[in-house]
């Protein structure tokens, strides 16, 4: 009987270790965006309608950018919420965070700090999701990609708009036909430290690429106080545009021109849950749902748009 009890105890320990291993330990860098609360709710609250199993946020590094009001004015509140509501451990360094977790969400709202914050994560080979924008410059994005390749660390970056049901259902429809062009629109508030579309226009740019795919060669950007208009020409001759809105109703959506129909795809409800599902699957498999090359082209699109704007709206090629 004693031997049976010992064996049963050992079996329970093994099963406990397997169950524990099945639930990934997630760390967060940057507690200055509402995304950290929404993502943690989905992962940690099993009673939430949007619960995504398989991972749990266990630790976080506060971060924050004093010169960005959207960061400085919110970081303390979101930090307190994570601690009091979800019991997340707050650590003092990214290195300490990496010691405690299996994978990392880089959530800092300021794209300028992403490269420096990603360095230790990539050095430690922790799978990494980088929230929008991947960085505040194309140069920083390319360096993050280089460091990831050098260390063999899987990563991906995406706006939640890529996985909006309106877009995904359209793409999955076998009767939709060929996409010949897209007009994407969305809010495009400005932040001086993160130029042009890099700050908030990234959502509409991601929408454009979700529906058009990669292949843009040049961008022409016109901008004033109320709007941005970026016109991209693809190598196959297709044209896609991004309308960034800073006045009036500022909804997300896209008008898709096809060989079979012209279809308007409004996004009526922005949900983070589909993105969180993609993130967990990525952490489990190491396979990014968005190819790194496409994300880097998105960054190059926004870089070309900004250079075009500065030059007075002349067509500007994407830097490769």
The CATH homologous superfamily of the largest domain is named NAD(P)-binding Rossmann-like Domain
Q: How many DSSP E strands?
A: 13
Radius of gyration: 21 Å
Helix/strand order, N-terminal first: HEHEHHEHEHEHEHEHEEEEEHHE
Strand order of the largest sheet: 12-11-7-10-9-8-13
State the end-to-end distance: 70 Å
| Uncertain runs | 1-20
The main sheet comes to:
7 strands, mixed
CATH class of the largest domain: Alpha Beta
What is the total domain count?
Answer: 2
Mean pLDDT: 93
Known CATH architecture of the largest domain: 3-Layer(aba) Sandwich
What is the helix content? 40-55%
Please work out how many helical segments DSSP would assign: 11
Strand content: 15-25%
- Tell me the structural class: alpha/beta
Q: Multimeric state of these chains?
A: single chain
**Anisotropy-based shape:** globular
CATH topology of the largest domain: Rossmann fold
């Amino acid at each position: 009987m004693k031997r049976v009890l010992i064996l049963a105890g050992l079996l329970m320990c093994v099963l406990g270790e397997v169950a524990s291993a099945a639930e990934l330990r997630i760390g967060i860098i940057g507690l200055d965006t509402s995304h950290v609360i929404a993502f943690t709710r989905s992962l940690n609250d099993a009673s939430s309608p949007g619960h995504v199993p398989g991972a749990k946020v266990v630790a976080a590094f506060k971060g924050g950018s004093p010169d960005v009001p959207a960061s400085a004015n919110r970081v303390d509140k979101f930090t307190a919420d994570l601690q009091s509501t979800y019991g997340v451990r707050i650590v003092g360094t990214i290195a300490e965070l990496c010691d405690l977790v299996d994978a990392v969400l880089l959530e800092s709202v300021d794209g300028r700090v992403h490269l420096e914050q990603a360095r230790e994560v990539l050095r430690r080979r922790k799978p990494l999701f980088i929230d929008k924008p991947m960085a505040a410059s194309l140069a920083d994005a390319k360096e993050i990609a280089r460091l990831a390749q050098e260390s063999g660390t899987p990563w991906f970056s995406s706006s939640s708009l890529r996985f909006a049901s309106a877009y995904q259902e359209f793409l999955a429809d076998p009767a939709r036909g060929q996409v010949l062009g897209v007009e994407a629109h969305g809010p495009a508030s400005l932040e001086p430290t993160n130029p042009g579309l890099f700050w908030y226009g990234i959502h509409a740019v991601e929408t454009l690429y979700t529906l058009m795919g990669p292949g843009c060669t040049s961008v022409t950007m016109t901008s004033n106080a109320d709007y941005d208009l970026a016109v991209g020409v693809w190598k196959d001759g297709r044209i896609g545009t991004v309308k960034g809105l800073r006045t009036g109703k500022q909804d997300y959506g896209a008008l898709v021109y096809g060989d079979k129909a012209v279809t308007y795809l409004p996004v009526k409800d922005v949900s983070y849950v589909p993105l969180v599902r993609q993130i967990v699957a990525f952490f489990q498999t190491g396979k990014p749902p968005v190819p790194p090359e496409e994300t880097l082209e998105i960054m190059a699109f926004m870089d070309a748009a900004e250079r075009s704007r500065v030059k007075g709206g002349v067509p500007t090629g994407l830097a490769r």
